[in-house]
Amino acid sequence: MKRALILSILWAALLPAQQRPVQTLPASSGDIRVTPIRHASLMLEYGGKVIHVDPWSQGNYSGLPPADLILITDIHGDHLDLKAIAQVKKATTKILAPPAVQQRLAEAEVIGNGESRVWEGITVEAVPSYNLERGPQPGTQYHPKGRGNGYVLTLGGKRLYLSGDTECVAEVRQLKNIDAAFLCMNLPYTMPPEEAATCVRAFRPKVVYPYHCRGSDLKVFEGALKAEKGIEVRILDWYY
Hints:
This protein is α/β, with parallel strands linked by helices. The protein contains 6 helices and 14 strands. Strands 1-2-3-4-5-6-7 form a 7-stranded mixed beta sheet.
């Protein structure tokens, strides 16, 4: 297993940028480009601006532009990776993150659950991201309420939701008018595909991308939403 992971990382490092499974989402002033990088890491491009989400050293960043904005969701190593952040940032890069992240990354500007910021015409809303029941032991959650953020970005007349690590909590179910959602699903840390599908049926994004989904059966997720009109499931390879 360890050897297979190492080979996977080496292969990703050699993959030409043009082979990345890039997606486009139509917006008011041109397309929003979505580049999956690895696990919870992705890059968004719109209006000449580049947003990196949860940069991670296991991802392949060769040939990618540096970040104008970096969003960090949580303190775990697959979300807060100082080496990867240093790789993608430049002198003018702005970093938004929950308070717990600033303890390790002093340059980050804090945005707490329920708060919002406007950056270069893009609205960034911090959505609570947490466990209800799953944790390493009874009474302890992998992601306690208040520590991590998901984000809703409003850009080009579209609303994009990035879940971070969460279960199907009330704040997620109550989201409105989401054009595209990136929704986590992996056990034991977040939720299984069936629970994620139930969550999607509650807030009904127009497009949903499963991500942060290593080991999950995405066919189960896709099958559970097959009959839902107005919801498109797009499966990308986050571990290429």
